[in-house]
Specification:
2 domains; Trp Operon Repressor, Chain A; 33% helix; binds S-adenosylmethionine; two-stranded antiparallel ribbon; alpha/beta
Length: 263
Amino acid sequence: MKLFVVLTLFPEAMEAYASSSILGVARHKGLVRTEFIDFRDFARDRHRTVDDRPFGGGPGMVLKPEPIAEAVEWAEARHGACRKIALCPSGRRFQQGVAEEYLAEERILFLCGRYEGFDERIVTVLGFEKLSLGEFVLAGGELPALCAIEAVARLVPGVLGDERSALEDSYARRDAPDDNQRGGNQRDGNEQAPRADLDHPHWTRPRLWRGAAVPEVLMSGDHAAIARFRAAEALRRDQLRGLDQLRTAPGAAAPAVRRPDSR
Ligand SMILES: C[S@@+](CC[C@H](N)C(=O)[O-])C[C@H]1O[C@@H](n2cnc3c(N)ncnc32)[C@H](O)[C@@H]1O
């Protein structure tokens, strides 16, 4: 069973989310375990202090290394060595490939920062890697940690109701061994056809809603035609995303290409 240990100052808030949604299901099935540890419990003074002023001056407070180190050592003595990840806006960018990499780990320990962040020696002395959810700043590492945990947990075999879901999702590894079982973006055995990074769009009942109809081909029963339609739609999304990335890249001139209508 995969174990996620999280050091946080807000264990109840994290537990509330983890006990519902797909994480709750994964825990209920006995496929994933989570343990939320309040590292304030490891503070030694009577005020249970976990932060202090930054050396060199400046605004805000910094998380002290000692309570975090003691919480890590307590957790590792209990469960065994963990891969240690500190959430930090300046860390390695979290992507689906990172979730797939984490899937191979038996135990991961996440550290959620607060205030101005944690003392840098958490990384250099305790051997934490830094992980960022993206180029924005939140008040704490709790939401990024839950995002990473959920992204990994839904890849654990048996967690999702239908195994194909994870294979067909956007950013899924298209070279997975059972990739040829994929329904959605499957290209009729034509292995040379380009494969999209993104999932195709989805529709459900009703067939007509507020004047917008579901594409006819999806109701045709012609599975090859449906697969071709979905593959083309997924590639179209890839192209639109590529154009958006070009348009928003720092210092980029607007692409000369006209952006087709997007969904
Ligand atoms: C207010 S932030 C600290 C920001 C820090 N002073 C900086 O500018 O890089 C407090 C904590 O929130 C978490 N955090 C905020 N944004 C994040 C992001 N994009 N990815 C991962 N963690 C983030 C980290 O754990 C961080 O230590």
